[in-house]
Amino acid sequence: MRELQSVMKTMFQQKRDVVLSILFGFIAGIAAVGLFAANGYLISQAALEPPLYVLIAMVAVVKIGSFIRALSRYGERYYSHRATFTMLSDLRVHFYEKLEKLGPTLFQKYRSGDLLARIVGDVESLQNFFLRVFYPPIVMALVFLSTILFVSFYSFSIVLVFLLGLLLTGVLIPAWFAKKQRKVSSRVLEERSVLSTETAEWFYGFRELTIHQKQREKHHQLVAASERYIKEQEREGLQSVSYQSINSAVTLLISWLVIVIGALAVSNGQLDGIFLAMLIMISFILFEHAVPMALFPIHYDESERAASRLYSVNKEADQEKIEETKLTNVSKSVPSIEANGITFAFPEAIRNTLTDVQVKIPSGSKTAIVGPSGSGKSTLLKLLLKQYESTGDLFVNGVSINELHQEQVWEMTKVVLQENHFFYGTIKDNLLLTNDQYTDEDLIQLLERVQLSHFSLEDQVLERGQNLSGGEKQRLAMARAIAKKGHLWLLDEPTSSLDAWTEQRLYEALFKEAKDDTVILVSHRLAGLENMDQIIVMENGKVIETGSFEQLMNNEGYFYHLKQIEKSVVA
Length: 571
Ligand SMILES: Nc1ncnc2c1ncn2[C@@H]1O[C@H](COP(=O)(O)OP(=O)(O)OP(=O)(O)O)[C@@H](O)[C@H]1O
What we know:
Blueprint: H1 2-11, H2 15-47, H3 52-109, H4 112-125, H5 127-151, H6 156-204, H7 206-211, H8 215-267, H9 276-286, H10 296-319, H11 324-332, E1 337-344, E2 354-361, E3 366-370, H12 377-384, E4 391-396, E5 399-400, H13 406-412, E6 413-416, E7 425-426, H14 427-432, H15 440-449, E8 460-461, H16 470-483, E9 488-492, H17 500-513, E10 518-523, E11 534-539, E12 542-547, H18 549-555, H19 558-570
Helix pairs in contact: 1-10, 2-3, 2-5, 2-9, 3-4, 3-5, 3-10, 4-6, 4-10, 5-6, 5-10, 6-8, 6-10, 8-9, 11-13, 18-19
Bound molecules: adenosine-5'-triphosphate.
Adenosine-5'-triphosphate binds at residues 346, 349, 353, 371, 373-379, 524.
């Protein structure tokens, strides 16, 4: 409910359109009732052969009524749709701005196809909130009350019939429909989410599916998901049409009751017969306003669910409290890192990935983290990038990372991950991503520093860097890291695809660049670690040794043995 209030707040930014939709809706409703009432009265009067001018005057009233009805209906549609589309556009911008900051975290938590489909679908579902949930009941109530007031001058029993009709078609039947429809709607949402995830997997995994000859199988799964989705949609459509028919049948029964009760009142002398046709005609039109109420609870539910799902993603953005005062301290100086008792498990994982990790990385130092595959090295970097939250204390320059906004952390770091994304465009476009202040000359120098001088700035990069080799991608990622501002280097196997010669050149360039900065280098290889200030050895999510290269070799512990194994393999 709180989430719907937020949607309403966005909606009321279009106050004028909201009020005009209700006003025009009310005028259209009352004009329709007046039109039908005048028609009924005209039919009765015509039977009594009144003077011609009376008939002409009444026909003129009917004409004017229909004219007013058409115009105000147009006004209602115009303003209600304008309010809705402006509200949707405001919501999209609002969510995009929030999600932009949370991108990496969210895409790890949710499957990307699923998340995008959810957000697009949920924002679209909210178009029904104003059009079918918010203002139609207000218009219906206003038209009903005004009509009932008018009818009460003629027959109290018909007022009671109208109230009964309102209760049935406006409240009881919609509530019953809603209960039945809820199940079907949730199945439609589920199938839509499965289909969009399958589609996203199909696109992203196209190459692997082709190589492993699984295209046909995946294609069948996709078609099956699509068919299930269509079937659920058909079922939903069929149910809502049948509900509307039942509601219409009930409104016809009410009109029939008005005929019976009105005829009795005329025969008892309680009602002048000339008004009977008018009251019957009113009953025909009045319940037209109650027909959309059949779908009110469904749209209400759908809007509430959509809003709460949207805002649940949004909440994660709000939970990130920014302490502006700490921004300067943390981002402008060369960071030191301290981790005390860090324990972490990935969401839904059974085991801890990190257990009681203690690490001290002084400002400006060069640290290597080594250890077997799966020992938790990359995970530690992810925590430093604030992609996940852990238990224990993690300090950056003495400030708890919990008190920092993710953006502050990213602002101070230069990152090369195991997999780096490259955008369709040129080498220059991809380099300018991190620092658009660089001139062409700067960029050419940058390429030389990372051993990519064979590239020109205008060379094409295909989608996701498909036309670059693994080593070229790593060097380009390193160039981007050098170009980016910041004093904390987080490097996760940045040279794993490079030959030893290029690797050495690259490290030379890197350490020259990062002379005064804090560097954390995750590496499988143990060669070249002699110059690091500190080596942290991890195994099974725990830090098992820490020290300089010399200390660790003298200790003859785990690192020493790894080094012996590496030597024997190389020899
Ligand atoms: N997103 C994730 N969800 C669940 N488990 C994960 C996730 N990412 C990594 N893990 C698990 O956490 C453990 C540590 O992974 P991590 O990538 O930190 O290891 P690593 O030491 O960097 O390995 P490598 O040297 O192979 O890159 C592994 O068992 C891995 O399966």
